[in-house]
Specification:
The structure is a homodimer of 718-residue chains. Chain A is mainly alpha-helical. Chain A is 55% helix and 8% strand. In chain A, strands 6-8-9 form a three-stranded mixed sheet. A three-stranded mixed sheet of chain A has the order 11-12-13. In chain A, strands 1-16 form a two-stranded parallel sheet. In chain A, α4 packs across α19 and α10 crosses α18. Chain A is globular. The first copy, chain A, starts with 15 loop residues before the first strand and ends with a strand. At the A-B interface, α1, α8, α9, α17 and α18 of A face α1, α8, α9, α17 and α18 of B. Chains A, B: This is Chloride channel protein. Chains A, B: Belongs to the chloride channel (TC 2.A.49) family. Chains A, B: It comes from Chrysolophus pictus. Chains A, B: Pfam families: CBS (PF00571), Voltage_CLC (PF00654). Chains A, B: It is found in: Membrane.
């Protein structure tokens, strides 16, 4: 069982920063061996690497598209199967008047399906829970959430989302596609699977954090693209959520992966649905298409849209606040896997019951169609979307109101369950429902004049609600534009999203950021807190720093690495002058992982008889690549007493030119350097280039802008 | 008259790097006064600054939209006027059989209009020539092209583009909108006009390169947005061409400005055209709308699209190569303004003649419509666009072929003339023409089957041709998607653009990059040349560096600043120890502009009687802001012999924590630091933090990947 933070008191995780998360290192490649390889690289070799990058992106796109197809087709078939089972029984029991038995059967069926989905997540791979978007945001930000891009996670994620959707929960299958795309990208780009113990000996060049991160961006974009049929939106999502240093070539590759992904999805689904070669369908989601000609908007409507944005912001904040309390409750009481499974089953049963009651109370859904029984609430909701087309009055306001209310609370309850599922579709549905309700009211008021068309208010409501919950603006605008196949509404959608974000931010953070904070992740935002200019590197850095001498005794290295109380990951290498006191001239930086590889490779390079001689070059760059990314702990390396007395020349392997910063540099400047270059360690030096401290991610993430100005988060070991 | 490079020999500008361009400094703000102000900033003050940023972006959007409206409306009216004049005469003379006189009248009229347009550009503001896109690219990259964002440039640009279009040249009015937007942004964000000598005392916080650059990005995006009705495309254009450090908040503001710009344009034009409140029209350009339902594409067509991409790439490369030779010829022979005006008139007359002949030879354009006489070739071309709709056979293949050929050479001849005009529309027209021709041929072959619709091939041809010439991919894909209001064609357009870029790059660079290189601009690309890893900072840096001591004699400072042979802009400040030899410990960095402001402000801070005492704080941050960006030369500051002997403490004003790099750092690493942070000066230090050299933009821009590996550009003083 995992250790629980604060088992007996109200958790204050939002004021804490966890140290359990390792950082990714987007600048670790600069060890001597790598530099040597880079020096040897010529134009032709570079071209080969570049072509490989494109090939990998194409593969990411294809596989992500195929996974999306797989989810779509399996959901459709399983839901169809469930429908037939339920239908037969309803027919049978309705004759005998046993509606309550039908309800029971239905709820049980849904709860069992969800149980399976919940069990695999809770017991096999807990990181596959939820949409995965917060986790991917963290990964792209540079925080290594354990297991987040493993093959096992992908398998659990895909099965989990299928079961959640088939189980009739108030969830969408779109969010998890982003996580799935990211895992696929991380897997393909490494040319091996550590879980399956297969190494294809390809793409070895990309076995480091920087390259892997770039491919994961592409994978996330491909996921968005497949989910919403929005390749440009996917690129913007990746950039908005992840990138810091914008690189044109990288962006093109991301775009390429996105395009291939939609293309693959559309090709396969068009064949599956029997109209091959028709590629004009969108992604997994289907909003129904807008008609450009009929649907315009006028300038007078802009205030109405802004008002809807305000409503969306408030409802979104309410959603997030409720979910926050719920999450707190879950952290405190529902931390055992079996309890989590039971909660998921309960939610499934309640959702089924609500859906059942809704269908039988409302006349709108008669005759009951296949899909409405399979996932009843979704069906009511999804039916709203094609009605963006002007068909006023085709919805009963009462039903809509009930639906909005019910679905709002169900979706809120569902998010954070230990099942694999997304929040995009529920948010859109809630918004579309109240938006349409709003539009219907307006058209009553306006006596059916042409502009008061409920369809477009449904769209705006959907945007407002989703914006109020997740607080994305640019990428979401584009996703909505692409998913509806309509660019005319770009401006009002942007206005609505901006308003929703501003209003929502006034109350509470966005849902993803909230969950990231609840996990105490050392997440770095785009800029340092604005009031932090008076802080300098001297104040934020960790000091004293454990340094290694350029020529160091093996025993010292082993002792430092074995010291569980410090557990540092990067060590400045300083001049070997034995007379130095605390401060010493910086010569380089060496990472824990590099030191471990030094000890791993037989014959152990730690073992060096001839004192001060150079180590025989037995170590290859390949050794570092083979060990990446799961470096073993130091305990697995046995060093004899004899070997401990040997000396090792670290300058052979260290990064000779680490980034440094003077101790008077202000926090925002340090932050900018850190963020723009994707650093993991930044050495703080004095005027004589002597090491005085070290800045890592947690030192920067500790400072946050709170309600009363700058606040400093405490550190938690869990 | 400007000095000409290489008057008597074939210029080899493409192997040169000019030193006449100053760099912008995106990190110059870190002087002590600024740091103090930043330390004082609290949350409320920050919020005010943030709100001002949004207000400025809204104003940029509105003004850019209005300028676009102005251009559109004036062009329409002037063209109408010209049409009536010509029409009357043609009617009069055709009766008498004097067609040749009509031709003469027409050509003369066009040539006179173009003459005016050319005269104002050539004699008043030469930087307003062309589309301005290369200049804006340079500005966003960090190179200060003189006068590029001045008010005068905007006025000349707007008048120039109106006259060029009315004069019937093979140009578009879209490209210049980008430049116009940028100038508007630069002007508004500073809250004053130096040209008009008006200071509104607002937005003083933004008077530095970093902030100005951000607003210029927004302005360029707003320009794209107004020109093509493509707000997202505008954002991507700005990012693709300019940004390096992606900042989420900045991107949102850019997006906001873009959206406001399209919105303003559409609102005003809808009122002007008499159907107010209908906001669904696109930007200046009008492709005609696609119908989603009817126009699909199938997977078999993909190879055809790729083939079109190849053709576009080859034709684009041909266009660029021809234009390259032409530009060389112009640099060599047509460097006097009066010759430039004559050339522009000649082109106008020839264009008129060709258009005249074309109209009278082809039956397609009967009856002659208003616009076809006003700008005949454009009209033939623009008429192609609405025909994206499936109306096969409505064009005579012969006419199309003639048009393609003629227009190709005319557009090529026109680009680079001393007139203000863009190349987007001509490229699109050429492409649409041969694309349609290709489509017609296909439909003959396919015997009119449904998929062989010439309309979509026209679109693909347009994309291929434009992509082959300008080599943009991501932003251009989105611009095309938004301008046609169609997202279905995203994937094939992307494929076509990618193919065109790859094929075109094989032969010759993109048009904009070519012109940037011909101007010997020290442009920094996205990444250092791949084969440059073996170079270190030691090899690329300039050395020895002119350093100032922390407490320095005023005379020394004045002498260093007056030294015309060096003309450095940044000086490392070193420890004042008089015993130091060549190397000395780095303490800070001070800029030429900062030193000049020190001397400007009465009472002159150079004058400090009490030796080694601190300067009385008379200098305010405001002094630096008021002097920005046109710092006077040192010669304008008079320093007496007495004053020369005084000492000045530079640590009061310097940047105390400049970015440094160790001398062993590889070129790509230096490059990444420089590019990611937008530096102007990077101090190279040794292991003891002593200054050994300085890296500036020109040191990095000198290394380029040529056909035979890494090549080093020579430096030219012109």
């Amino acid at each position: 069982e995992l250790p629980r933070p604060y088992p007996n008191e109200i958790p204050h995780n939002e004021k804490l920063l966890s140290l359990k998360y390792e950082s990714l290192d987007y600048d670790n490649s600069e060890n001597q061996l790598f530099l040597e390889e880079e020096r040897r690289i010529n134009h032709a070799a570079f071209r080969t690497v570049e072509i490989k990058r494109w090939v990998i992106c194409a593969m990411i796109g294809i596989l992500t598209g195929l996974v999306a197809c797989f989810i779509d087709i399996v959901v459709e078939n399983l839901a169809g199967l469930k429908y037939r089972v339920v239908k037969d029984n309803i027919d049978k029991f309705t004759e005998k008047g046993g509606l309550s038995f039908s309800l029971l059967l239905w709820a049980t069926l849904n709860a069992s399906v969800v149980m399976v989905g919940s069990v695999i997540v809770a017991f096999v791979e807990p990181v596959a829970a939820g949409s995965g978007i917060p986790q991917i945001k963290c990964y792209l930000n540079g925080v290594k959430i354990p297991h987040v891009v493993r093959l096992k996670t992908l398998v659990i994620k895909v099965c989990g989302v299928i079961l959640s959707v088939v189980g009739g929960l108030a969830v969408g299958k779109e969010g998890p596609m982003i996580h799935s795309g990211a895992v696929i990208a991380a897997g393909i780009s490494q040319g091996r699977s550590t879980s399956l113990k297969r190494d294809f000996k390809i793409f070895e060049y990309f076995r480091r954090d920087t390259e892997k991160r770039d491919f994961v961006s592409a994978g996330a974009a491909a996921g968005v693209s497949a989910a919403f049929g929005a390749p440009v939106g996917g690129v913007l999502f990746s950039l908005e959520e992840g990138a810091s240093f914008w690189n044109q070539f990288l962006t093109w590759r991301i775009f390429f992966a996105s395009m291939i992904s939609t293309f693959t999805l559309n090709s396969v689904l068009s064949v599956y649905h029997g109209n091959p070669w028709d590629l004009s369908s969108p992604g997994l989601i289907n909003f129904g298409r807008f008609d450009n000609e009929k649907m315009g908007y006028t300038i007078q409507e802009i205030p109405i849209f802004i008002f809807m944005g305000v409503v969306g912001g408030i409802l979104g904040a309410l959603f997030n606040a409720l979910n926050y309390w719920l999450t707190m409750f879950r952290i405190r009481y529902i931390h055992r896997p079996c309890l989590q499974v039971i909660e998921a089953m309960l939610v499934a049963a309640v959702t089924a019951a609500v859906g059942f009651v809704m269908i039988y109370c409302s006349r709108d859904c008669q005759p009951i169609q296949g899909s409405s029984v399979a996932y009843p609430l979704q069906a009511v909701g999804l039916a709203l979307f094609p009605c963006f087309l002007p068909t006023p009055g085709s919805y009963n306001p009462m039903t809509l109101g009930m639906f909005t209310l019910m679905y709002f609370f169900l979706a809120c309850w569902t998010y954070g369950l230990t099942v694999s599922a997304g929040v995009f579709i529920p948010s859109l549905l809630i918004g579309a429902a109240w938006g349409r309700l709003f539009g219907i009211s307006l058209s009553y008021l306006a006596k059916g004049s042409i502009w008061a068309d409920p369809g477009k208010y449904a769209l705006m409501g959907a945007a407002a609600q989703l914006g109020g919950i997740v607080r994305m603006t640019l990428s979401l605008t584009v996703i909505m534009m692409e998913a509806t196949g309509n660019v005319t509404y770009g401006f009002p959608i942007m206005l609505v999203l901006m308003t929703a974000k501003i209003v929502g931010d006034y109350f509470v953070e966005g849902l993803y950021d909230m969950h990231i904070q609840l996990q105490s992740v050392p997440f770095l935002h785009w800029e340092a807190p604005v009031t932090s200019h008076s802080l300098t590197a001297r104040e934020v850095m960790s000091t004293p720093v454990t340094c290694l001498r350029r020529i160091e005794r093996v025993g010292t290295v082993v002792d430092i690495l074995s010291d569980t109380s410090s557990n540092h990951n990067g060590f400045p290498v300083v001049e070997s002058n034995p007379n130095t006191t605390q401060v010493a001239g910086l010569r380089g930086l060496i990472l824990r992982s590099q030191l471990i590889v030094l000890g791993l490779v037989p014959p152990q390079v730690f073992v060096e008889r001839a004192n001060l001689n150079l180590v025989q070059r037995r170590l290859k760059l390949k050794d570092f690549r083979d060990a990446y990314p799961r470096f073993p702990p130091i305990q697995s390396i046995h060093v004899s007493q004899d070997e401990r007395e040997c000396m090792i020349d670290l300058s052979e392997f260290m990064n000779p030119t680490p980034y440094t910063v003077p101790q008077e540099a202000s926090l925002p400047r340090v932050f900018k350097l850190f963020r723009a270059l994707g650093l993991r360690h930044l050495v703080v030096v004095n005027n004589h280039n002597e090491v005085v401290g070290m800045v890592t991610r947690k030192d920067l993430a500790r400072y946050r802008l709170g309600k009363e100005g700058l606040e400093e988060l405490s550190l938690a070991q869990t």
